[in-house]
Model the fold of this input.
Amino acid sequence: MDRGQVFVRLRVLRPFDPWKSPLCTCPPKYSLQPYTGCSHGCLYCYATSYIGRRPSKPKRDFLRNLALDLLRANPSMHISMSNSSDPYPPEEERLLLTREALKLIARRGFRVLIVTKGSLVARDADILSSMRSAVTMTITTLDASLAKVLEPGAPSPRDRVSALERLSSAGVPIGLRLDPVIPYLNDDERSILEVLEAAANAGARFVVTSSFKARPDSLKRMCEAYPELCGRWIEIYRRRGTWLRGYWYAPIELRKRLLARVIAIARKLGMEYATCREGLRGREWFSAPTCDGSHLINCGRS
Ligand code: SF4
Done:
């Protein structure tokens, strides 16, 4: 089916289109961002050339527009919150925009997939556990000092693990995003094992992983933060890598090596796994029914 045919004109719900990447394997879904900008300020962020590098700001008339969109949207498609701006930045504690959006979505019976680094998501376990939902939490490292440089405005990795534990205890299906795996920085086996073990102990049975894809602005930020690694990144991304739809991809053999490390550990821990926007197919790279974790959404609730 032509994806364009299933979408009517909406205000804040958008057909998910990851920058028209031919490598995306996500099922058709809506993307919903309550905020523009993102206070988490991750160095490797893919979205900064679209949303800018500024704090999260609520969208004007967001809830009113969402309520109207939900009357016209296709309820067979799930809603992914969020793909280019975190739905749980620190501002959400006061503004409650995501929480109110969840109430509207629940009332209309849509399924929702939360994608976040915000431990604040555990606050909404009451709503999430009563609707058809799942939460995937991004954790790139358990090293708090590394995370503080890479994701300066986001909660600590341990706080994110605690949020997963709280959600899981409340009956909300959870998964892990180990994304991005950055060559020479968080790609060693011990670091990957720590992250997967912590998520698995919190109740996650699914991990999706992806290698770092560099953009000119993100590579510059990474080089400024880690000048000693800059030459190696320039070599693998700009000299030996591939430019695809606005991103430098590292050479395929290197990407496979990094992702295979994650998958081998996932297998040992009995977790389902998938890769994201890598162009890799087959059981070696995918054991889960979906790459985004939307299969985790509990269908039994209404
Ligand atoms: S949380 Fe996501 S959207 Fe926000 S800065 Fe980090 S990578 Fe970008």
Remarks:
- The chain has one domain: 3-296.
- The pocket of iron/sulfur cluster is lined by residues 38, 40-42, 45, 47, 84-86, 117 (CB under 6 Å).
- Residues 1-5 have pLDDT under 50 and may be disordered.
- The first strand starts at residue 13 and ends at 15.
